[in-house]
Each structure stands twice: as C-alpha cells, then as structure tokens.
Amino acid sequence: MKALQTMIFATAVTTATFASPFASAHASLKSSNPVAGTTLPVAPKEIALTFNEKVEVAFSTITLADGQGNVVTAEKAKVDAANPAILRMDVPALSAGSYTVTWAVAGHDGHRRKGDFKFTVK
Length: 122
Prior knowledge:
This protein is α+β, with helices and mostly antiparallel strands. The protein has one domain: Immunoglobulin-like (Sandwich). It is built from one helix and eight strands; from the N terminus they run αββββββββ. The protein has a four-stranded antiparallel beta sheet, with no helix packed on it. A four-stranded mixed beta sheet has the order 2-8-7-4, with no helix packed on it. The protein is elongated, with a radius of gyration of 20 Å. The N and C termini lie far apart (73 Å). It comes from Janthinobacterium svalbardensis. One of its GO terms (cellular component) is cell envelope.
C-alpha cells in the first residue's frame, strides 16, 4: 500500500512540474512603440506591441484614446506577417496631448490578457 501511495505522489509531482510552464504561458507584453509613459516630440505613425508569444488576430485589439477618453482611430490592429508576436495599428495624425493605448490579446492557449499604457505628444 505504501508503494502505491508513493507512486501516486510521484506521479502528481511530476505532472505538476511538467504542467506548470503551460499554466503560465499567457501572452504578455514585452515592449511597445511608443514606449509606455514616454513623451514624444512627434506623433507616432503606428503603435507596435510585442508579446512573448504569437497572438491570435481574431481575438486581439488595440484602442487609442485621447486625454478625454475619445477613441481617435477606427483602424483595426493587425498581426505582423513576419513576426506573429507583434500587433500593429496605424495611427492618424495626432495633436499634442495625452493618449491611452488599451490592448487585449489572446495567445495560443486562448486566454485573453489586457493592459493599457499612456504616452504624450508634445
């Protein structure tokens, strides 16, 4: 009986050890252009978000809003053809002010992650 309990325990520990990398394998933002919190002398032409894994375009969005919360573009985000871990969106001409980028993506595991950051145009 003790051998059976030991084998069950060892199997559970092994399963948990191998499953743990997959449990935390959600898409996470690695970098952004423009950089979060930055003040730019000139408005960006696009927003590019780089994640730690490929993102699914059908479940991934970027929204750009001005300082009053008004959405400033109707463009849809696109996954970069050369690197599917990058999500891009063209940006219209922006005036001086504060802007908020809000993003939501789904990685290969199907879990959605969300986030936002601000940048300022002089």
